[in-house]
Specification:
The protein is α+β, with helices and mostly antiparallel strands and 220 residues long. The chain is built from 8 helices and 7 strands; from the N terminus they run ββαααβααβββαααβ. The chain has helices at residues 39-45, 48-51, 55-69, 76-83, 87-99, 122-150, 155-158, 163-184; strands at 16-22, 25-31, 74-75, 103-106, 109-112, 116-117, 201-207.
Length: 220
């Protein structure tokens, strides 16, 4: 599908996610079209040994360390044990994780700087997902057909593209602008808040099985 934005700035239109899983560890970045740092950036900051790690090995090592930090600050030695790597590789990975704002060093220990969600958080996550689904279902019941009439003159509609496909693309704008309003209202974390190392997006980790009813693919 081709499109023109007509000059609309997509900064702060929060509509896109990148999701990848290794074992029980799932990594998500969500935000606007700004570059979103993740595992590839962590690997790039590491030594030759860290850069040689496979995606699976890297994801499981970083996931294990972040899940250990979910329980509180840990030393590099404790994180080495959690990740099952050697000490030098752990230090390289921690340097990379610190550079993208996932961890912070406090003396001899590290602490997590992004959310890490485990099965203990499932009741909270389920409640939030339920609210989101109810709001979207209600909006669609009230506005799906009305929205169709309001876009009847745009090119894909005039060229016979099925409305379902057209709506699927336009939904990204509705969803992104709604998230922008929620950020402005203080209900979502501001990805552009002063002092944030990660500008334009938020990152978090979660345990497989936590996201019941939540699609695990790009743009979910």
């Amino acid at each position: 599908m081709a499109e023109e934005t007509g000059g609309l700035s997509l900064k702060r239109i929060y509509w896109g996610s990148g999701n990848v899983g290794y074992g029980k560890y799932y990594f998500t970045t969500f935000g606007d079209l700004s570059p979103r740092g993740g595992l590839s950036d962590i690997r790039g900051k590491g030594s030759t040994a860290a850069q040689a790690m496979s995606g699976e090995e890297l994801g499981k090592a970083v996931g294990a360390m972040m899940f250990a930090l979910r329980e509180g600050p840990r030393t590099s030695e404790a994180l080495t044990k959690a990740a099952g790597t050697d000490g030098s590789k752990t230090e390289e990975l921690l340097n990379g994780m610190e550079s993208v704002g996932w961890v912070a060093r406090q003396g001899e220990e590290y602490r997590a700087r992004i959310p890490v969600l485990t099965q203990r958080d499932k009741p909270m996550v389920a409640g939030l997902l339920r609210i989101g689904h109810e709001v979207m279902d209600s909006w669609l019941v009230s506005n799906y057909d009305l929205f169709r009439s309001s876009v009847r003159e745009i090119t894909p509609m005039r060229q016979g593209v099925p409305y379902q496909q057209t709506f699927d693309q336009l939904w990204h704008y509705l969803f992104g602008i709604a998230n922008q309003k929620l950020v402005e209202g203080g209900l979502f974390t501001d990805p552009y808040a002063t002092g944030r190392m990660q500008q334009g997006y938020v990152a978090f980790l979660y345990e497989d099985g936590l996201n019941s009813g939540w699609a695990k693919h790009e743009g979910s």
